[in-house]
């Protein structure tokens, strides 16, 4: 005797599987969107209200001027995200150390090749974002240099 496969049960199983996969995708997209919003808010606050920002760039350590901090926030806001499943190694990086209220924050911008930048913001919270380079890394380097983006930065140490 042949066993008859109920097409209704197969349809129900496929439907439930697709529904659960869609639900998981929507929840993960909402979580990512919320994390990006928090990242942008924290970066905005750091660039506009931080007590001090020290940048470790190619030319050494500098205390960033307030004009260059605003430029840093504008540069970051003008970028677009880049999706990647891998964790590429950085080719070059610059680091910004912020002091805001009683918290220490570190923003590291790394060139990882393939027209992509990795941005890591660490402090009381931690974020890792990949963005398209589109020659933005050169502009970040300019903001972190002695010349600065809009005004000169003060050299710290030798």
Can you describe this structure?
By secondary structure, this protein is of the alpha+beta class. Helix content is 40%, strand content 28%. The chain contains three helices and seven strands. It has helices spanning 7-49, 66-77, 136-143; strands spanning 52-57, 60-63, 92-100, 103-111, 116-122, 126-132, 154-155. A seven-stranded antiparallel β-sheet has the order 6-5-4-3-1-2-7, with helices on one face. A hairpin with a 2-residue loop joins strand 1 and strand 2. Helix 1 (7-49) runs antiparallel to helix 2 (66-77). The mean pLDDT is 90.
Short description:
40% of the residues lie in helices and 28% in strands. The chain has 158 residues and is of the alpha+beta class. Strands 6-5-4-3-1-2-7 form a seven-stranded antiparallel sheet, with helices on one face.
Core attributes:
3 helices, seven-stranded antiparallel sheet, 158 residues, single chain, alpha+beta, 28% strand
> What's the total count of β strands?
7
Radius of gyration: 22 Å
Mean pLDDT: 90
Tally of separate helices: 3
Helix content: 25-40%
Distance between the termini: 90 Å
Taking the sheet with the most strands, its summary is: 7 strands, antiparallel
Structural class category: alpha+beta
Strand order of the largest sheet: 6-5-4-3-1-2-7
Percent strand equals 25-35%
Any low-confidence stretches, pLDDT <50, length ≥5? none
Q: Helix and strand succession?
A: HEEHEEEEHE
The general outline is elongated
């Amino acid at each position: 005797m042949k066993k008859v496969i109920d097409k209704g049960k197969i349809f129900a199983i496929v439907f439930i599987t697709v529904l659960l996969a869609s639900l998981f995708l929507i929840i993960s997209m909402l979580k990512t969107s919320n994390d990006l919003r928090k990242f942008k808010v924290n970066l905005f606050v750091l660039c506009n209200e931080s007590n001090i920002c020290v940048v470790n760039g190619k030319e050494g350590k500098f205390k960033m001027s307030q004009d260059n901090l605003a430029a840093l926030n504008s540069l970051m806001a003008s970028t677009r995200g880049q999706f990647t499943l891998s964790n590429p190694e950085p080719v070059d990086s610059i680091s910004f150390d912020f002091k805001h209220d009683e918290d220490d924050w570190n923003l590291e911008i790394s060139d990882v090749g393939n027209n992509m930048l990795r941005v890591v913001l660490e402090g009381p919270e931690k974020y890792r974002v990949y963005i398209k380079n589109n020659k933005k890394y050169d502009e970040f380097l300019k903001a972190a240099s002695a010349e600065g983006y809009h005004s000169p930065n003060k050299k710290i140490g030798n």
